[in-house]
Amino acid sequence: MIEYKHVEGKEKGKIIIYALSTCGWCKKTKRILDSLGIAYDYVDADLVDAKTSEEIDKEVRKWNPKETYPTIVINNEKAIVSYDEDKIRELAK
């Protein structure tokens, strides 16, 4: 089972970030959400065991067939693939 870390903030729907701990774009994505004060959950795919990593890969593939990071899933309905500052900032509206 994937264990997400929660970051407190304003609720703007269920936002999940699939990230890598070493990815600069993933860090920028988290920083923008933090600066906007938006609540989100995240998991760093490179810091989990092999079984959980397979689960994350499967989940990311649903939204992003190229399996790039970050992949941001919003309300289990749509995704922002890779770093897209404008789309990320739209989450605050």
Structural class: alpha+beta
Task: Tell me the fraction of residues in β-strands, as a range.
Answer: 15-25%
CATH architecture, by name, is 3-Layer(aba) Sandwich
| Number of E strands | 5
Q: What is the number of helical segments per DSSP (H or I, 4+ residues)?
A: 3
Question: Spatial order of the strands in the main sheet?
Answer: 1-3-2-4-5
Low-confidence stretches: none
Rg is 12 Å
- Going by CATH, the homologous superfamily would be Glutaredoxin
CATH class assignment: Alpha Beta
Number of domains: 1
Alpha-carbon distance between the two ends: 32 Å
CATH-defined topology:
Glutaredoxin
What's the overall average pLDDT, rounded?
Answer: 96
Q: What is the percent of helical residues?
A: 25-40%
Overall body shape: globular
List the helices and strands in order.
EEHEHEEH
Main features:
five-stranded mixed beta sheet; 3 helices; single chain; 23% strand; alpha+beta; 35% helix; 5 strands; Glutaredoxin; 93 residues
Task: Describe the fold and architecture.
With 93 residues, the protein is α+β, with helices and mostly antiparallel strands. It has one domain (5-90): 3-Layer(aba) Sandwich (Glutaredoxin). 35% of the residues lie in helices and 23% in strands. The protein contains three helices and five strands. It has helices at 24-36, 50-63, 85-90, and strands spanning 5-7, 15-19, 40-44, 71-74, 78-81. A five-stranded mixed sheet has the order 1-3-2-4-5, with helices on both faces. The mean pLDDT is 96.
